[in-house]
Design a protein that fits this description.
two-stranded antiparallel sheet; globular; 4 helices; single chain; 95 residues; 34% helix; alpha+beta; HNH endonuclease
Length: 95
């Protein structure tokens, strides 16, 4: 069986790679029990460094919307060249 793919960066997520579940609608904004996606931990951190909870709930509650945002598109192009286990501080400053 092959490793699941991160829907944000499209790299495989092997069992030993840092990973986390992302609520497409933040729990604090009504997403408790809602759909989640498995992401690399670095991809998850970049989402939350880019958007507020309100922005995630209102405009960025699908993988397609997240991937279309210019900052995340740049991040995806950068991280796609890294191995699946790669973890570093999220570049740029947190909002």
């Amino acid at each position: 069986m092959s490793d699941p793919l991160c829907p944000l960066c499209l790299r495989p997520i092997p069992p030993d790679a840092p990973q986390s579940q992302h609520h497409l609608v933040p729990r604090l904004k009504g997403g408790k029990g809602g759909p989640t996606v498995l992401l690399h931990h670095i991809c998850h951190k970049e989402i939350h460094a880019t958007f507020t909870e309100a922005e995630l709930a209102r405009s960025y509650n699908t993988v397609e919307a997240l991937r279309a945002h210019p900052r995340l598109a740049g991040f995806i192009a950068w991280v796609a060249k890294r191995p699946p286990q790669f973890l570093s501080r999220v570049p740029g400053k947190r909002r």
